[in-house]
Amino acid sequence: QVQLVESGGGLVQAGGSLSLSCAASGRSFSNYAMGWFRQAPGKEREFVAAISWSGGSTLYADSVKGRFTISRDDAKNTVYLQMNSLKPEDTAVYYCAASGIVVPRADSADFGSWGQGTQVTVSS
């Protein structure tokens, strides 16, 4: 298992940017693919983005493609989510997750470790 702690959430106006970080501890970070999910009030948790263990493959939800960028720094055991051109509908709790699958699907079932989440609120 790997332990995950998210940071960087907050309140931002529509059109603004935020950068989320997820620090990992425990087993070797470089052996995990990483992902971001989000859950808005009254809605199910949904996939946002994922990056393979090598960093060579990324996957995005259609709703964030072209606006969000996932990246990883294995030297710092950290995965990032850069969010630009934010919209009110991006408001949610954002969760970091780790997967033992080399290239995971956009499916929470592929992810076995989860952080506690960080709140992102986008005002109109």
Structure summary:
The protein has 124 residues and is mainly β. The protein has strands at residues 2-7, 10-13, 18-26, 33-39, 46-51, 58-60, 68-73, 78-83, 92-99, 113-114, 118-123.
Write the layout of secondary structure elements.
Blueprint lengths: L1 E6 L2 E4 L4 E9 L6 E7 L6 E6 L6 E3 L7 E6 L4 E6 L8 E8 L13 E2 L3 E6 L1
Parallel strand pairs: 2-11
Antiparallel strand pairs: 1-3, 3-8, 4-5, 4-9, 5-6, 7-8, 9-10, 9-11
What is Rg? 13 Å
The 3D shape can be described as globular
Mean pLDDT: 95
Task: Note the beta-strand portion.
Answer: over 45%
N-to-C order of helices and strands: EEEEEEEEEEE
Given as residue ranges, the uncertain stretches (5+ residues, pLDDT < 50) are none
What structural class should be given to the helix and strand makeup?
mainly beta
**Number of H/I helices:** 0
The profile of the biggest β sheet is: 7 strands, mixed
Number of extended strands:
11
Give helix % range: under 10%
What is the straight-line distance between the termini?
39 Å
Report what the structure shows.
- The protein has 124 residues and is an all-beta fold.
- Helix content is 0%, strand content 51%.
- The protein has strands at 2-7, 10-13, 18-26, 33-39, 46-51, 58-60, 68-73, 78-83, 92-99, 113-114, 118-123.
- The strands form 2 sheets. Strands 2, 4, 5, 6, 9, 10 and 11 form a 7-stranded mixed sheet that branches. A 4-stranded antiparallel sheet has the order 1-3-8-7, with no helix packed on it.
- The protein is globular, with a radius of gyration of 13 Å.
- The N and C termini lie far apart (39 Å).
- The mean pLDDT is 95.
